[in-house]
Amino acid sequence: xxxxxxxxxxxxxxxxxxxxxxxxxxxxxxxxxxxxxxxxxxxxxxxxxxxxxxxxxxxxxxxxxxxxxxxxxxxxxxxxxxxxxxxxxxxxxxxxxxxxxxxxxxxxxxxxxxxxxxxxxxxxxxxxxxxxxxxxxxxxxxxxxxxxxxxxxxxxxxxxxxxxxxxxxxxxxxxxxxxxxxxxxxxxxxxxxxxxxxxxxxxxxxxxxxxxxxxxxxxxxxxxxxxxxxxxxxxxxxxxxxxxxxxxxxxxxxxxxxxxxxxxxxxxxxxxxxxxxxxxxxxxxxxxxxxxxxxxxxxxxxxxxxxxxxxxxxxxxxxxxxxxxxxxxxxxxxxxxxxxxxxxxxxxxxxxxxxxxxxxxxxxxxxxxxxxxxxxxxxxxxxxxxxxxxxxxxxxxxxxxxxxxxxxxxxxxxxxxxxxxxxxxxxxxxxxxxxxxxxxxxxxxxxxxxxxxxxxxxxxxxxxxxxxxxxxxxxxxxxxxxxxxxxxxxxxxxxxxxxxxxxxxxxxxxxxxxxxxxxxxxxxxxxxxxxxxxxxxxxxxxxxxxxxxxxxxxxxxxxxxxxxxxxxxxxxxxxxxxxxxxxxxxxxxxxxxxxxxx
Length: 598
Known about the structure:
This protein is an alpha+beta fold and about 600 residues long. The chain is built from 14 helices and 17 strands.
């Protein structure tokens, strides 16, 4: 098993155990937290419902209080009238406007006054007769004279075919013994609007102080129902608030209740809420499902990250091992892309440093060998130069002149001219001293050489020397341009049956350097061969016998003038060849600064 797999499995196992433990702990904590929050929210909902019930009932009690404190109304209702028209006039002037303003209240189905005055035969007035005296509300007021208002449980109205619950009020503000009462019947659906839509699944029960049920959201009718009829009544007891679990068969509910302790008319009313246990379980299950999804996502992400990290680490180790295996004396390349500050990156940097040091040592050895060979080459050049100086040019020139005279006597002017040019060529070559001469002198040698080649190739060779006088004083290595022209003759003219033109130009570059170009329209050089020649120019030592002349000129230019100068080759197959020498603009054939007139 590779180190990558071992490292990956170990980290994945650790992450899985940690995330699993964390998820389990968070699930248990979240479930308890959610259950506690649901209980708190449910208690808040019950408290809010109780407050709303209290405010709703208080709003209708305030209407009764308005009638109770309206002394002018009570005085007119308690007064004695001599005739019905007199009572009727009082009714329409005083009582009816008040009643009209009260009867338009929402959810109120009926408002009735009970009085002992027989002349009040108006709508909404009922005389207190024997039937009224036998009613529950009348008996309750008579049994407890101190009670001012009483709420009564819902009853079904036989005439209206709807359920009502009643609020009764004694109007005895002016006279404590007055037999004057008012009843207000309200629609039993009054409390339905107090239950929020999101709580429709919860069961709400509202009871009066005597236990009578005025609202049961899961029952369509509550007529005659009482709190003691429910199984959980004994567990509620007399406590003001509380909660406990209620089980009914397979169903289980959380019961929360609160008792109203405000005004005497509603003191003892209870608001009860039953929340299904399956809703709590559903929330817990949802938390568990989300936790599992988060666990799976976290595990997947962690495994992906661990894999990416293991791949990054082991990939660099593999790369380092591969680089170590591939090290040889011919390819000492440092590793690329070793980023970071960890131990693997440190090993990579140490390896790169080691490769750099080995490469420098090898280069030092090669450079020593190159210097040794260059010294040998210079020694040979010095010997050649010494040998050249030992040749007696006068003897050579006199001999060639004698041959030319003999040819002229015989009338062979063409060969005599050739001998003349040959003698001139030797004079130009052997008569100059030094490694650097003026471009003008080099051009004279080239011109003589090309004139000789004209005798050899005839019309197949044409040439042009287009070098302005201003550039002819520049310095050039001796016989450098001569060698380029010879290459053009050998490789362009001799290997081509078609006529060949050779052009020598000079132009100044933007930086002040002088470019001298030998161009031909011969067969050109293939791309692969051109690339090989270019690579050979910068080789420290020749690897073969080809293109030694070009390499020597390039190396002489760089050795004489610096690394920015040398040969530049351009060629295309079938489109000729252009070889250029880059010469410095501040170096001249006299060895002094400034230009030298040619």
